[in-house]
Give the backbone structure.
Amino acid sequence: MTTLQRTGRWIGEHLVLALGLLVLVYMFVPIAVVMLMSFNDNSESRNVYAFRGFTWDNWVNACGPDGLCDSVVRSVQIGLLATLLATLLGTLAAFALVRHRFRGRAAMNTIIFLPMASPEIVMGSSLLALFVASGFGGHLGFWTIFIAHVMFCLSFVIVTVKARLTGLDENLEQAAMDLYASELTTFRKVTFPLVFPGVAAAALLSFSLSFDDFIITNLNAGQTVTFPMYVWGVAQRGVPMQVNVIGTVMFLIAMFLVIGNMIATRKRPA
Amino acid sequence: MRGRWTGYWLILPAALWLGVFFVIPFYSLLATSLYDPEGSVLTGYDVTYHVANFVDAIEEFWRPLLRSLWYAGVATVICLVLGYVLAYAIAFKAGRWRTLLLVLVVAPFFTSFLIRTLSWKLILADDGFIVDALQTVHLMGDDDRLLATPVAVIAGLVYNFLPFMVLPLYASLEKIDHRLIEASSDLYASPSRGFWKVTLPLSMPGVVGGTLLTFIPAAGDYINAELLGSPNQRMVGNVIQELFTSTGDYAAAGALSVILMVIIVALVMVYIRKAGTEELV
């Protein structure tokens, strides 16, 4: 190989990495802007498109704008409830799909895949059509949002837990049973700890999906206002800088949990 | 515990939930699309098999419908290029930083979709630095804007759906046996030939999965068009949601949703046939 070729190759090898990192940087540009704007002092003007000066006010006074924190609390409530139910039902379903044979498994796999592959606007309007047709058109609100969120989180939970279960060595459970552990003890001491990282990841995923959903929620919310709906509402008039504070906090909490989960998984030999 | 029926009992709750709140609603949507268009929220609707709803919907809204498919298509192609570079770099070049980089791909997700999109509005704003820079080098005239153009909407779509492209691509690139690529170079294939003949074909499941997971939500999206575009960039999602929530024209909204779904399913089926991968689940 000539020197020229070698240099060419070196550039080639590192070029891809450099370009990849560039794409990654691009993904973080808006996040950096959100963090920066959370310190923006725009008390003087309603122009939200420029950085006017540094202030802690938005952080100190995060609940200042009318209705902002109410909407965050409502989104957290819906998110927690929907995550709880979706994770429970989804984990059970994942066990059924990986560990048990039953009729209709193939059909079930398709039905689980479909919500991930349908446009949200179609799912949202279908659900609205159902609620209206069954006489719940006037009762849209907290619980219809909850129903919708459990519905679209389920598929993601099932897929995530399934992936973890499939990679699991069934011999470990066999060994526990050979050592006279009862089925329940085996589940508690062996199966569950092994599956737990998958369940935790699924729960985190479904909370963030629920907290972030706008399109389906907006169609089925009636007068109830979730956090994304609040942002949508104020987007036309000029967004209060506190919205960026909430965005930053969400980002930091999620990063903390994800990296925590990563470290925990690494320590436990899987 | 391992009885014959255990599987059924475990799957039942999830199956019921998806059945009642995902499968049945499609029938409700279909019924809605066949409503008598004379009905209203106050007088109620009747299913009169008013198939003309579909014709009316296409006649009136073919522009936003086509525009959605066009924008989503362009965004998907750009995502594929950017996503492939990133996924390839993580899978083959990142070494022990893989997991961290993957986490970083998903991380922007955790700041709300709407906040991220509003952030782009700020970046692309008329007095923002990108517009200033482009005007300084005269790539843009003094009165040209980025906001309220197709460019802004497509840029938003690319940004928001990029992770959906990267993850499936990474998953299939990571599975590739490196010895196959080495074999191709042992047989005197140049690196680029090795890529086109070995790596790319082996990553096709990821390409198909990623493009679908990007195209489908992008075609139904209306947040980017609303926040970054103008009425001239209205996509089909904007129309459907307005018809449902402000106009209250359920029949037309239902028909348009069904049309969108049918088009997407048809495109997906043709695409999967062509790409030759049927195992996506």
